[in-house]
Design a protein that fits this description.
Elements (H helix, E strand, L loop, with lengths): L18 H17 L10 H8 L3 H5 L5 H20 L12 H19 L1 H11 L7 H23 L10 H24 L10 H21 L16
Keywords: DNA-binding
Protein name: TetR/AcrR family transcriptional regulator
Pfam families: TetR_N
Amino acid sequence: MPQPTAQLDLPGVTPSRQRRSREMTLALLEAGAELLCTRSLAELSISELCAHIGATVGAFYSRFDSKEAYFNALLALTLQDGREQLLRLPPVNPVTSGGLDAQCRLLVRGIVLWMRRHKGVLRAALVRSERGPHDWTGFKDLAQALSERAAVVLLPVMCGTAAPRMRAGAADERRTIAFGFQVVLGTLVNAILNDPGPLSIDDDEISDRLGECLFLLLRARRDTAPPRPPRKPQAGRGPR
């Protein structure tokens, strides 16, 4: 959960100018995120949530309109943290980045850490999404933005050029990156929702394995890509 209490102006949350009151709101949200790691949203009672931090049920309802509003606030903060943590990937100099393998592992590691930190909220959102698509829309948008941002990092390493959009086949390489992230995110979502094994979201090995899978997928596309066409001389300039 984000720490600054100024970030708690959310729909369904009663605003407060007092710092202590805002800290209590944040404590309730953090407690819910923790408790949802070991139980479903339906199993989480308001009285249990309040008892977990020594608050009263009245204190809960003075801040949240309902349990649904409370969970929507949890979702909003989880998405906010995702945008802050996952979409701040700077373009990387391929000379100093360690290459495609290192970049794939670094990106996947960041995704796993974020999903692990919010696994209870994510699992509850996935279960609730079965009732209607609106519950998961924000996370789909985040995944799309993450895939597009990752292309900024990975395309120069794949293409070996500072301007990958000019390279023949770059559109297909972007699609390969997008599919690679679909594989990564789909595997992690399944691990959170069903935990089918052999690796869980809490196993560090899942990050290494998925990073390697992403790398192998992108490397296969890079190694089979058509050769780059020769650069045409600019008009008015002959060979020297």
